[in-house]
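WARN retry 2 of 3 for item q-0093 after timeout on previous attempt; input resubmitted unchanged.
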Amino acid sequence: MVDAGSLADEIRNLASTPAHQAMLVALQQQRLDEWLRVTDERARQPESAVVPDSEMRVCLDSLSHRRNNAVRLRGIEADIRLMQE
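OK item q-0093 returned
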């Protein structure tokens, strides 16, 4: 958003002025909405609070195959059990 002013080489950025904040926010929201639509982005859809056990098992298997610290792996398993409660 720019005010060209009365002189040809005079330019004033209006985006930072309080009077134009609502318009700036609306334009940003419009641009985000269009991007979400075009990309079929699912960012606005809430994620499930429940992570399937199969996904957790894959994660744990991956960690154990990388020879991670056994204490760390047990800690992660304990965290998963807490999430499942």
